[in-house]
Amino acid sequence: MREAIKMVVFDMAGTTVNENNIVYKTLRHAINEIGGYELPLTEVLEHGAGKEKLQAIKTVLKKCVNVEDEELAEKIFQSFLQALEKAYEVEDIYPNSNANELFAVLKDMDILRVLNTGYDRKTAESLLKKLNWVVGRDIDALITASDVPKNRPYPDMIDLARANFSISDPTTVVKIGDSIIDIQEGQNAGCALSIGITTGAHHADQLKSANPDYIIDDLWEIVPIIKKYNIPSQVV
């Protein structure tokens, strides 16, 4: 008999955080400004969403303009980091629809709430501060791209989250994110469910291409999904 869900791992931007694509708009601007390109936001989202941001830049350059240049990528990355810090200081950022309510319900269900992200820790913590989300109160942990050797689609961030709470069985974990690479991360980690959400980088058809267990339009839809999954564990 399978165990009940013990942890939900959420992506940040586009999944739990509504920031109107500030990250990828800033990333696009840095790529175009430094590289002299005219890439549309749709291409940046398609190839860069969910990835650690230096890797996102390298992938966009390779896929969109057939350029592999480590020095150029690093120059763009440093420009992006500076611009993003300024953008986060002035732009409005909100919890995504029903994020706070879901965090509270999951706590009542004794399910751990973990955020993971392709941001570095400094950027991720600045977001938490702006949202007034506190580790230990609103969420149980924050795992960032700079905390692990390998980033999405590798399972390192989810593996670290499990290790931090002594959860040995990955089939007691759910992963949810707004990009294909989020779904792949959950699958590679062996999660019970890998769920796509349509509130961010990739639309439903793009998410569907990664074969998620569910595609949802609002975070609140996770509650009945988890309850349905947990029913067999309650049957004697």
TrEMBL record:
Domain of life of the organism encoding this protein: Bacteria
Pfam (any one): Hydrolase
GO function term, MF aspect, one: phosphoglycolate phosphatase activity
Keywords: Hydrolase
Record keyword Disulfide bond present: no
GO terms of biological process kind: DNA repair
Protein name per the record: HAD family hydrolase
Gene Ontology, cellular component aspect: cytosol
Classification via NCBIfam families: HAD-SF-IA-v1
